[in-house]
Amino acid sequence: MILFAVYFYVRYGVSYRDLEEIMAERGVTVDHATLNRWVVEYSPATARVAQKRKANTAESWRMDETYVKVRGEWVYLYRAVDRDGQTLDFMLSAKRDTVAAKKFFANALYHNGIPKRITIDKSRSNAAGIKEVNKIFKWLQIPVKIDTIKSKYLNNIVEQDHRFINRRTRSMLGFKSFVSAAATLAGIEAANMIRKGQLGHSTNGFRQIPELAG
């Protein structure tokens, strides 16, 4: 029941009070504050399992950032998809700089392996982040170099993919804390992977969400 409630919230455009009413109509009494705690607690765990179980992705990546409001301030959601639009990785960051880009790429490489190329926009910090990763490869004597492609046109795939995330967060009218934002966004990303069929042929999240909880 808890996981179904969490999935319903991160997948569809409902508020916590709307979800409270929906649950009550089905004989489950739970207040909106408790629903919020469930989302913050269980979303990151389901996203971690989704990362491990998702199907293999292509070696050509598209990377970009979108924006989310936390306590009235804009923060940055780093995201990457492959050439086919399959979700690779995501990371919420208070800053948009080389340090954040390097951290994002390190996480993405850990979860998805080393790509042949990464397409970005004209962001200098993202280009610098990839350059730093290549320096580490060279220092470790790993005979690999990730090619960087700067192309607004090729990056349309990830920009289009932002729409699912932005549409869901827009109805939330911002987050009260960075921790709750990161947790909720992890759940939204997991729901997006399910929607794309990355965790199997079925796109029915209500069937797949219990499996993600282990």
UniProtKB/TrEMBL annotation:
What InterPro entries does the record tag this protein with? DDE_dom, Integrase_cat-core, IS_Transposase, RNaseH-like_sf, RNaseH_sf, Transpos_IS6
User: Could you tell me which residue ranges the Integrase catalytic domain spans?
Assistant: 40-214
Q: Name one Pfam family in it.
A: DDE_Tnp_IS240
Per UniProt, which keywords does this protein have?
Answer: DNA recombination, DNA-binding, Transposition
Q: What does this protein do?
A: Involved in the transposition of the insertion sequence.
Q: What is this protein called?
A: IS6 family transposase
Source species? Ruegeria haliotis
The beginning of the lineage is:
Bacteria, Pseudomonadati, Pseudomonadota, Alphaproteobacteria, Rhodobacterales
